[in-house]
Design goal:
Chain lengths: 456, 245
């Protein structure tokens, strides 16, 4: 009775919310869980299996890759909507998207991106067959305390998994790789072997550079993204990855050609999204898809066909102008976005939108760890907006920009309007928003008919 | 004139954007045509503390703080040398974890106790909750004026001040040193300790200039800092103080 009432309530709420044009991503699940706290556990029995993706950066892209790989091979998939990655978002998805199966219909796979703090509860409730940990970067420490505590949370979640689960960990992230020690489940590591695109030293934004046990500073032979790379020191050894990126060749403006070895098999594939961090997302997705029974060649094809998802570098046409959106939320991710933009050497118009709502993180200190200096040589203009527009303007002043040349906008709506007006026909406006700024931006673009509603 | 800065343990104590503080000290000096050099001092490296006009010490995660505390009190004698340099007129800014280690000790839990270097007559103990959020405080430091200090705090240690030091400010929003006596930070001579991140100095230029001036006075008799156009800094400071109040 209770279970049925919970699903009914969730569905009714979703219906009302949709009528009002809302996103309906968390409210139905929240109501459903209130009525039936076991909603997730009960509903997850109707799945072929769950795949949980957690970590600081790359959750959404990796989940998108995995879901598309399963779908390409004819496996139905349900997934939580991007960013809606707390228990309520998972509950919403299960309540609204898992129904009675028709005869002959296959059980769907559940692919869930899960917030790090929610991960232990999600593991307990979903009992996933596969768990992926992408990386651990300094992000929203105002909410979770410190990085090591986040690692402890994930460790708790992994320990609670069934013995038959498969755990996929990033070999190049010392904190993540250390999670695999002593786990009774099957643990597989993924990592980049090709060092041709590595940097010689750690960037300012690097975290977790010491052995979590002994405290000894790590030495890096190669650095790829943030603190991800080939490290050694203390009692830590980078584990030999099972899923290895053996060759990474950039294709101008179009991402990379990848050669990946999975055990004895080798796959070559193209990755249409620039940014080295996306190579990690592709590796993680190949590993997860393989664990779910998808042949790696098929998974590679699905990844190649996947366009950048939900604000992570999407391009929208607006009245003859292009708007490219690159979500930023922490220094490492933001640095990668900025580096990626720099691959095109033309001068660009930028709009940086910084909000400090709960979902963005209340603390904007990370702006000072981000190398906004790299924006200056490629910028025609840099405008700012959002609740912390003034902080962002200050950041740019101290990066070397004359404050008189920084347009500061009160609202995101007016920022978009003014900066689009400044952008010539056929030109591009590059927007770097934090999470809630991106939601407002998308709402504005949706209202103008440029972006499809993201639940439709 | 030349300002010599020692950045203590930037690889380990670099959390929460404290790099913005160094950037601010460097820029605000160079805009006035004061030469600046920044030396980065890590664990195991020797330090000639007498060379420096200003020490900067940022915040870090627990484990990094352990390693740094051991290095400060270890055989290289860095902690003693830094305290001596400050006693002889060098300026310092210590934030969060660095602030705690500039005190007498930090007791993060029942078992271990990290010895500080005693620049500040203050000690820190573990608190029951983590103080996380925006802070606004009224300066108590002479020469800073009435303009508030704004920033962000994120700490579970509770710091209590002794008789020999003065609080940096009185909080009007947020928790400050310990959430009980409304004090925030601490001042001893030219050394300032604080829990403010944010980064602190870019949006509190009055404190940045106070530190630069104190630091230069160590080796120069007459120091008068030229005024800068701080319209953006002051607008940001005022706006945040109003928003968080």
């Amino acid at each position: 009775m209770r279970a049925a009432a919970a699903i009914g309530a969730a569905r009714t709420l979703a219906g009302i919310s949709r009528l009002q044009g809302g996103g309906a991503t968390s409210l139905p699940g929240l109501a459903g869980l209130k009525i039936d706290p076991a909603l997730i556990r009960r509903r997850s029995h109707r799945l072929a299996g769950s795949i949980v993706v957690t970590g600081t950066n790359g959750k959404t892209t990796t989940s998108e890759f995995i879901g598309n790989a399963l779908e390409l091979t004819g496996r139905p998939v349900i997934r939580n909507q991007a960013g809606s990655n707390l228990l309520r978002g998972i509950a919403s998805t299960l309540a609204l998207r898992v129904g009675r199966r028709r005869r002959g219909e296959r059980k769907p796979w559940g692919v869930f991106e899960v917030d790090e703090a929610t991960m232990p509860a999600a593991c307990r409730e979903l009992r996933p067959k596969v768990v992926v940990v992408t990386n651990l970067f300094r992000d929203q420490l105002d909410r979770y305390g410190e990085l090591k505590r986040t690692a402890e949370l994930l460790r708790t979640g992994l320990r609670s998994l069934p013995k038959s689960s498969i755990v996929l960990l990033n070999a190049d992230d010392p904190l993540v790789a250390a999670l695999g020690k002593g786990l009774p489940q099957t643990v597989r590591y993924f990592g980049i072997e090709d060092t041709s695109r590595s940097k010689p030293r750690l960037p300012h934004a690097a975290d977790s550079v010491s052995d979590p046990k002994t405290g000894e500073l790590l030495t890096y032979d190669a650095v790829f993204v943030g603190h991800l790379g080939h490290y050694r020191g203390g009692a830590l050894r980078r584990p030999n990855p099972h899923i290895r990126l053996t060759d990474l060749s950039p294709v101008r403006g179009r991402g990379y050609e990848l050669t990946v070895a999975l055990g004895r098999r080798t796959v070559t594939m193209s990755l249409r999204i620039p940014g080295l961090y996306n190579a990690y997302n592709a590796l993680a997705a190949l590993a997860a898809a393989e664990a779910a029974g998808v042949p790696p060649a098929k998974a590679g094809q699905a990844i190649a066909e996947t366009a950048a998802v939900f604000g992570r570098q999407e391009a929208v046409e607006v009245e003859g102008r292009r708007v490219v959106i690159g979500l930023i939320k922490n220094p490492t991710g933001a640095n990668e976005i900025i580096n990626t933009f720099a691959e095109d050497r033309a001068k660009k118009r930028f709009l940086v939108l910084i909000n400090d709502n709960f979902a963005d993180g209340l603390d904007v200190s990370w702006l000072w760890d981000t190398d906004f200096e790299q924006l200056l040589p490629q910028a025609e203009t840099i405008a700012v907006g959002g609740t912390r527009a003034a902080d962002m303007a200050l950041r740019l002043k101290y990066a070397g920009l004359d404050p008189e040349e920084i347009p500061i906008h009160d609202s995101i709506e007016s920022a978009l309007k003014a900066e689009l007006a400044r952008t010539g026909p056929g030109d591009t406006l590059y927007v770097l928003p934090t999470y809630t700024a991106m939601l407002t931006l998308r709402r504005e673009l949706t209202r103008a008919g440029h972006v499809k509603h993201y639940l439709s | 004139m030349h300002l010599r800065i020692a950045h203590l343990y930037p690889r380990r104590m670099n959390i929460y954007g404290d790099r913005g503080n160094i950037l601010t000290l460097v820029r605000r000096s160079r805009w006035r045509e004061i030469a600046v050099s920044v030396d980065e001092i890590e664990c195991g490296q020797r330090l000639d503390a007498t060379r420096y006009d200003l020490f900067f010490f940022g915040g870090g995660q627990d484990q990094e703080q352990d390693a740094v505390a051991a290095d400060l009190t270890g055989r290289l004698g860095k902690g003693v040398a830094i305290k001596e340099a400050i006693d002889r007129g060098a300026a310092a800014l210590a934030v969060c974890g660095g602030y705690q280690l500039f005190g007498r000790y930090y007791q993060p839990d029942a078992n271990k106790r990290l010895e500080g270097i005693g620049v500040f007559d203050a000690y820190t103990e573990a608190g029951p909750e983590r103080f996380i959020g925006n802070v606004v405080a009224t300066p108590l430091l002479t020469g800073l004026g009435k303009q508030p200090l704004v920033g962000f705090e994120n700490h579970s240690g509770l710091t209590f001040l002794g008789e020999a030091v003065k609080p940096l400010a009185r909080v009007t929003r947020g928790h400050g040193n310990n959430g009980r006596d409304r004090t925030e930070g601490c001042v001893a001579g030219g050394a300032v300790g604080t829990y403010f991140h944010g980064s602190l100095l870019p949006k509190n230029p009055h404190l940045a200039d106070w530190l630069i001036e104190r630091a230069l006075r160590r080796r120069h008799k007459r120091v008068r800092l030229a005024a800068l156009d701080d319209t953006l800094e002051e607008t940001t400071n005022r706006e945040l103080a109003r928003r968080f109040a």
